[in-house]
Design brief:
Helix content: 25-40%
Shape: globular
Strand order of the largest sheet: 5-8-9-15-16-17
Order of helices and strands: EHHEEEHHHEEEEEHEHEEEEHEHEEHHH
Number of domains: 3
Strand content: 15-25%
Largest sheet: 6 strands, mixed
Number of strands: 17
């Protein structure tokens, strides 16, 4: 197959040709031809023919805002088409489709399509309605969707963390630019890799600091970690394993020439990460949860779904679920990969487990839950409990 081959999925023939090409390629999924053609057909049917629906060079190039594009791979496109087909019978489905008309909202709408079918598949969910209208603190709000369950309506809002639009991510890119320039100025060999971990704030001129740090690391033995100011530096060879790290945000650079090269950590010639900057992710996720919370009506149980890293997300959620204004929010679902991890208060754990995780309580307990939630008794009780002063630990230097 020629490298410049194109498949226009707006035609049935090209959908079948792309499906056949994909299953014959070196792929990480187990999709079959029938699944691919059905998903792509659903995508075209529900979104309508669009200019970006031509596969070339490994994916569909989708506009994502001014001067921005994103690559939609075949598995993602199939997942999107299948999700739309599963949701097509839901009330106000047109409101969901409208999100794909704005390029800056494409990824947000895609995330909603991932979460909504998962919710619909729950045995406790009787139906789903998109973009319900509620008055929240005197303003009209349109949360993403509401679920009709045995305890009544549960209102849901989905938010996605846009990593590449954050200030701290831009700072990480500037740091990578500085070290990249330092390597070029020193005529670094093409097979040399520099791994940089930023552990503390950087003071002074960034480029000068990066140049000085790189000069210090040059000539050291391969694989040795050297502490230089705010950095931990390590020289290694392109193709060898990189240092393992728990950092969510990492910036890697790969040289692409005439030889096909996988975009992998091992092929990076420069890799920059920062545990110090990871704290900013929890703050950003917290702000995202706050924005989602303002969409939820206070008289009904609500759930916030966040697409972001799990550990910072759980920290941000835990800090908010203990606040009285979050009494109606029964859980924050952190979505990562293909899994959802729920953060919830201990008192709400049974209801969340019943509605979303399939842990069905005994009939008398279910009846009690239904009465408490449908009449607003549980939210009022939770709010009262959260308003109580929290016990404090006496200061060891006092005579308490």
């Amino acid at each position: 197959m020629a490298a410049d081959k194109e498949f226009d999925i707006r035609t049935a023939a090209d959908r079948h040709a792309l499906a056949d090409h994909h299953v014959r390629s070196d792929r990480d999924d187990t999709l079959e031809v029938g699944e691919i053609t059905a998903g792509l057909a659903s995508l075209v049917n529900h979104l309508g023919p669009r200019d970006w629906m031509a596969w070339r060079f490994g994916g569909f190039v989708v506009p994502a805002g001014a001067k921005h594009q994103r690559l939609l791979a075949v598995p993602e496109a199939v997942e999107l088409g299948a999700g739309l087909e599963a949701l097509a019978r839901c009330e106000n489905f047109a409101a969901l489709l409208a999100g794909f008309d704005n390029p800056t909202q494409f990824d947000d709408a895609l995330f909603e399509v991932r979460i909504a079918p998962w919710c619909v598949e729950r045995p406790t969910v009787r139906r789903l309605r998109f973009a319900p209208r509620y008055a929240v603190l005197g303003r009209q709000k349109r949360p993403d969707f509401e679920l009709h369950t045995p305890i009544g309506r549960v209102v849901c809002e989905c938010k996605r963390l846009h990593l590449h639009s954050q200030d701290w991510n831009a700072r990480l890119i500037r740091m990578a630019d500085a070290f990249d320039a330092a390597m070029q100025a020193a005529n670094s060999p093409d097979d040399a890799r520099l791994e940089v971990v930023v552990n503390h704030p950087i003071h002074g001129n960034l480029q000068a600091v990066a140049n000085s740090a790189y000069q210090r690391i040059r000539g050291t033995a391969e694989g040795v970690i050297v502490e230089v100011g705010p950095f931990a530096l390590r020289l290694s060879r392109v193709g060898s394993p990189v240092l393992p790290t728990d950092c969510v945000v990492q910036h890697g650079r790969t040289r692409v020439g005439s030889t096909p090269t996988g975009i992998l950590p091992e092929t990076n010639y420069l890799r920059v990460s920062s545990p110090w900057m990871e704290r900013a992710i929890a703050r950003t996720l917290g702000a995202l949860i706050n924005v989602a919370h303002r969409q939820l009506p206070h008289a009904l149980p609500g759930v916030i779904f966040i697409d972001g890293p799990r550990d910072p997300g759980r920290l941000a959620a835990a800090a908010r679920l203990v606040q009285p204004e979050y009494a109606h929010c029964i859980a924050v679902g952190i979505f990562r990969g293909n899994e959802i991890d729920f953060s919830r208060r201990n008192i709400d754990e049974p209801i969340v487990d019943w509605l979303f995780l399939g842990n069905r309580p005994p009939l008398p307990t279910r009846l009690r839950y239904i009465i408490e939630w449908r009449f607003g008794l549980r939210i009022a009780k939770t709010r009262t409990r959260l308003q109580r002063p929290r016990p404090t630990v006496p200061d060891r230097n006092t005579n308490a």
